[in-house]
Structure formats: structure tokens, C-alpha cells
Amino acid sequence: MTSRSYTVALAFTLLGVAITAIGHAIGLFVAPAEAMMGDVGRILYVHVPTAWNAMLVFLFGFGAAVASLWTGRRRWDAWTTAAVEVGTVLTLLLLVQGSLWAKPTWGVYWTWDPRLTTSAVLGAAFGVVLLLRRLIDQPARRQVATAVATIVAFVDVPIVYMSVRWWNSLHQTQSTPKTIDKMMAVPLWVSAVGILVLSIGLVIARWRTETARLAAEERAPDLPDAPAPLHLDQESR
Amino acid sequence: MTGMIQGGWGYVVAVYGISWAVLLGYALVALRGSRPAALSALDPGTDPNAGSDA
Asked: Does A36 touch chain B (CB under 8 A)?
């Protein structure tokens, strides 16, 4: 483990924060109010990039899980864990953002709409992956269980993305460059790039910690055998 | 523009405030936990200034 990867994580994180701040500033103070949602539409400049990047981070986690199962190498287990943790944080955040956006636009904080329900399932599924990791002590079993659970949980990612097309949903379908004004597209994409760069920094930082934790676990001496039970026979009494 | 939702800045401020608090807080925890000194304490067998990420 080198200090170089820490410098990379720090640089990505700081750069991501700076780019995101610029994107949000444009979205809050330069972009026009949305025709129907008014100023509430500005929430989309943080909500949509958070959702995109949660899916991207989970996609990376899925790839790392496949590599972890395929190679059995510890470093892929650490990458899987780091991606699942960062993706879960982003998913929980986007659920809160979405609820606060839904109240003024739909009149409720939460409804069992297909997009909302599948997104909640996504957060819960990856939360279970992290919980599962804490419950298994044996490193090899834990690595396989983490990888398999991550692959299973990832099945929900395309379902979340397509839910607004497959089912009758309150949530709007995906916008395209043709349906969005340039003054709205710029803050959306700048914020998306910012959160992506930030997410890369966070995944690297978490990978470093998890790698060191796994290495320490591997180096830890085995516990001594339990002492043999006392057998008191007649002669020793 | 009839039908536009009026107001709503309170929700906007809440969403951006919560988002920045969570992202910055999590970044702080992740970066502090991955500092070379923190990793040396976690795993004394590692050299924080070693030459490769093997």
C-alpha cells in the first residue's frame, strides 16, 4: 500500500468537490427555473447526477465482484466492498433527495411508484451485502459471499433504470439532449462529472482502507488451541 | 407559464444542504481512514511509504 494511491484519492476527491460546486452554482444561480416545477426543478442538478453515479459505481462493483470470483484475489474483494459502500451511500442520498423533490411536485414524500420502489430495493439489497460481510468471519467464504451477493443485487440496477419505461410510473422518463435546454444541460453534466470524480476518489480511499484491513486480518496470528479439558481420574485424586 | 410551482426554495436548500453534508462528511471519514498513518496503525506490517501497491 503506497502513499501515492492516497494522494490520488485525495486529488480526485478535492477535484470532484470543486467541479460539483461549480455545477451546483450554475444550476442554482444561472440556469432558468423549470417551466412546470419552477425553482424546485433545481433539485434535479444534484438528484440526477447522484442517481447516475450510484449506478456507475455499482457497475464497477459488479465488475469487481466478477473479477473477485474469477481470480480469488483479495484486491478485487476490497474493490467490490469499496464500490458497494460508496454506491449504497449515493443510493440512500438519492432516495432522500427524491423524497424532498416529490413533496412539492407530487404532494407526497413517498409513494410506492415503480421507480421509487425499485430504488429502495436497490439500497436495501446492497445494504444487505455490507451486512453479510460483517457476519462472516472466514475470509475466503466472506469473499465469495460478497461477490455473489453483489452480482445478485446488481440485477436490480437495469430494472431501476428501465422501470419508468416498463411500468406506468409517476416518475418522468429519461431526458435526452433534444428535450433539455442547454442552460439546464450544462449544470446537469458538470455536476455529473463532479460527482463521478468525487466517487472515484471515495472508492480509492475505501479500497485502501479495506485492503489494509484484509492484510492485517491475514497477518493476525491464529488463536491458540483451546486448552485440553482436565481429566481427573482416580489416581490423581 | 401557468401551472408553475411557486416557491419551493426551502426544499431546494434542504436537498443541497443534506447532499453536501453527507458527501463532505463521508469524504472526510473515508480520507481520514485511508491516510498512510491510519493504515499503519490498522496493519503494522505495512510500510506506508513502500514502493508499490502489490
From this structure: yes
